[in-house]
Every structure is written in C-alpha cells, then in structure tokens.
Amino acid sequence: MANSVDNFTGVDSIDIGEGRSMSLYKAKNVSLQVIRDGVPTILKNFQDGDMATVQKTNAKVDAMTDAQAGVAGAVTYDSLGTATVTVQQGGETNDLLSDLYNSDEVFGFFMSYGDEIVGGNHCMIQKAPDAAFGKAVPTRAWTIQIFDYTYDGNRNA
Questions:
Q1: 145 located within any domain
Q2: What is the count of structural domains for the chain?
Q3: Which CATH number do you get for residue 59?
Q4: 0.85 exceeded by pTM
Q5: Helix (H, G, I), strand (E, B) or coil at 27
Q6: Domain range for residue 107?
Q7: What does the pLDDT look like over 39-82, one tens digit per residue?
Q8: 97 closest CA partner among 14, 41, 28
Q9: CA angle, corner 12, sides to 53 and 41, nearest 5?
C-alpha cells in the first residue's frame, strides 16, 4: 500500500525498483488559493485543460557581451509576475475574481503542488477577462498581476 496512487501527494516519488523512481502528477492535488484579509479561499471550477499558469515577468539577470566577448551582467531584483487563471463562467471562482477586480483589492495568490509553490502576497487583477458566449461552456481567463513574485520548487527541504 506504500506505493498506492491514492497515497501519492506529489512530494515523494514512487519506487519502481532497480534504483529507479517515478514521479506521478495528480491535478486534484494542485492548490490554487486567493488570500483576502488573511483568509485563504481555494479556487475551483476551472476550464478543461490548464487551470492556471504563473510566470515571472522579467529575467532575474540581464547579461550582455561586447564584440570581444567581454561579459557583464546585472541582477535586476525585479519581483513582478503574472498569473492567468481560466475558470468556468458562472462558477464561484469567477464570482470571486470579479469581486476582486471590481473592488481594486490587493490580495495574495498562490499555486502549489507537493513541495513547489509560486505566487505572491500582493496581487491585483490586471484586467477583466474577455467575455465570449457560444455552444460550449464559457470560460473566463483572469490575469493577475503579482507584485512580489516568489517561486520555491523545494520549499520543504
């Protein structure tokens, strides 16, 4: 039972013998949270496909070389990031993100899985989503600006 898929949390790999291991991803264990006034709310009702993408806006290091291969680099200390969360129109998460957008509220946003976490404590909705309606379930792609972007791929080490 130690290698049961149901027991796998994304933190440890599964021993498959002969010194090999297998990582197993389970989307149901990904957590997306909005934190308002210290209270976390778990996001849900996503589109079919990617729930969210989070990325650092600018490079941590800018480098250059001259014509004679002299190298220089600058650490930027830039802390901007962007998250895009795509949810079902009419779901609880769409309502929450709409409230955050309309109130110009600053909030925390984090996405985590296993030991990996990305997000920030100071975020705002950058713009309202495009609103399309048609034959399929409508979705809304919300863009979140992260002002203090952090990434930790091994936070429990």
A1: yes
A2: 1
A3: 2.40.30
A4: no
A5: helix
A6: 44-152
A7: 999 999 888 778 888 999 988 899 999 999 999 999 988 899 99
A8: 41
A9: 45
